[in-house]
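Me: I keep going back and forth on a fold encoding question. No explanation is needed for now; the record alone will do.

Assistant:
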Amino acid sequence: MASRSITTQVSLLAAGTLLGYLLTSRLSSNTNPSSSIDDEISLVLDFWFSTSSSTSYQDLHRYKWMSTDKNQSSIDAEISSRFSALTVTLATDANYRAAFLSSSKHPIRNLHAQIAAIIVLDQFPRHLRRLHNPSHNGVALPPLSTTDALALSIASSLPPSNALTIPMQVFALMPLRHSSTLPDLKKVMLEIDEMDKQVADGDRGEPNYTHETPLPTY
């Protein structure tokens, strides 16, 4: 009887140890949920804006931003492969969207998060819908009117900043352009005039965004 009691105690202790390990492991994996969001932000910005010694902003404009029929399908397919799940999640999950937009206390990083969200919600759905009706885990991507409204809300609250490159500023204006309301179009024109002045003072367009506005280390 005593030996059975000891055996039972050992079994309970082992089960408790295993349970504690599983809980600790689960908690530690969720200690910094913003780290995966930071990765998503960087992936979006790298994909959309990064240049290299062999790729200029002119190349991005020609082959990605304003792609023609010749290479449009390949860009659409790449966005679908890499960002379809993120686009659906950001468009349909309000909690995730809030976490995405406030993943860092660093002001420049938060600006970059807003720009990334605008790209995902304003640009990516237009690419995805040329291929199929995207969904993730059984949740469908909302219509363009919904994703456009979400992007417009973010763009409208974006604070003025000299920490953004000219291309980033241009794409921050795209939701206003797509809304086609007179006040929004007037704001676009005013912002374009301001960008013209910035370019005249010194072009902030060509450097890689990661070099121009260093991100904090996490």
